[in-house]
Design a protein that fits this description.
This protein is an alpha+beta fold. The chain is 35% helix and 24% strand. The chain has five helices and nine strands; from the N terminus they run E-H-H-E-E-E-E-E-E-H-E-E-H-H. Helix 1 (21-29) packs across helix 2. The protein is globular and about 45 Å long. The model is unreliable at 1-9 (pLDDT under 50). Bound molecules: adenosine-3',5'-cyclic-monophosphate (CMP).
């Protein structure tokens, strides 16, 4: 099966589910990140998203590898291992993978599925479209990024 994802750490590890835009919109409506979006914006986000399923123990991003996708956890739980220790576990509604897309750098953390899960996946070129289509998302993403930086600073002592 062709993977909907790009990038060595992501290829061939996730199964694409063929779903309609309507099904994707239903998932998007439940994600806090997208809660302020209009129906039109949600429709456009649905158009650039894929829903993928991952088994428990799937490595979703691997620290040090290049990354090409942004992920929103629809259900399930993932662990986060960074250079400075264990990060907050990711739960439904949480997103990850934004850092490599924003700065072009390597994945900053290894994120592993702890349970079977469904994820919404947006590829690099569409991530730029997403931020253009829904500029209000930038603020939420920056807030989360700031929290992660603070957490890393605290972990360093
Ligand atoms: P990226 O570096 O692209 O890939 C790994 C992702 O893990 C990273 O983007 C963030 O989305 C996420 N991440 C990094 N550090 C933390 C942390 N301390 N807590 C939760 N998630 C993190």
């Amino acid at each position: 099966m062709e993977s909907p994802l790009h990038g060595p750490e992501e290829a061939d590890r996730l199964d694409a589910s063929a779903r309609s835009d309507d099904a994707r919109i239903k998932h998007l409506e439940r994600v806090p990140l997208f809660s302020g979006l209009s129906d039109d914006q949600l429709g456009r986000v649905a158009g650039i998203s894929k829903i993928v399923e991952a088994r428990a123990e799937t490595v979703l991003t691997r620290m040090g590898e290049p990354g090409d996708s942004f992920f929103v956890l629809i259900d399930g739980r993932a662990s986060v291992q960074t250079q400075v220790g264990v990060g907050d576990p990711l739960k439904p509604g949480d997103f990850f993978g934004e850092m490599s897309l924003l700065d072009g750098g390597e994945r900053s953390a290894t994120v592993i599925a702890e349970t079977p899960m469904r994820l919404l996946v947006i590829k690099r070129r569409d991530f730029s479209t997403l931020l253009r289509e829904a500029p209000e998302l930038t603020q939420s993403i920056l807030a989360t990024l700031s929290r992660r930086v603070r957490q890393a600073e605290q972990a360093l002592g």
